[in-house]
Amino acid sequence: PPASNPAEPEASASEAVTVATAAPPSEEPIAAPVSEAEPNDDPATASTLTLPGIVEGALNPAEGKADADAFRFTARAGETWVFETNAARAGSPADTKLDVLRLDGTS
Questions:
Q1: The model's pTM
Q2: DSSP codes joined into one string, 77-92
Q3: How far apart are CA 20 and CA 53, in angstroms?
Q4: pLDDT at 36
């Protein structure tokens, strides 16, 4: 069964909050949500995420640029993970996108 959703975060007009969830298709418990912290805009500054896990964050566009948040996690060959964002369900105007990259930042 899918992982249960955490309490919906609140968003103000000036910031949009998104929640990203990574959960295996099993009953493994998910740790408490982790708040993302800048700088983590590219693979070189990626924050570490333990799977399964939940990340909560606010969009912080710098000088008109879109905000990107990078996370590093460990997965083993043969594992299947489900990654999703909760922006639309939380009422956020954010148009979220997930890219899973190799350690060197390539797809």
A1: 0.67
A2: TT---EEEE-TTTTT-
A3: 8
A4: 86
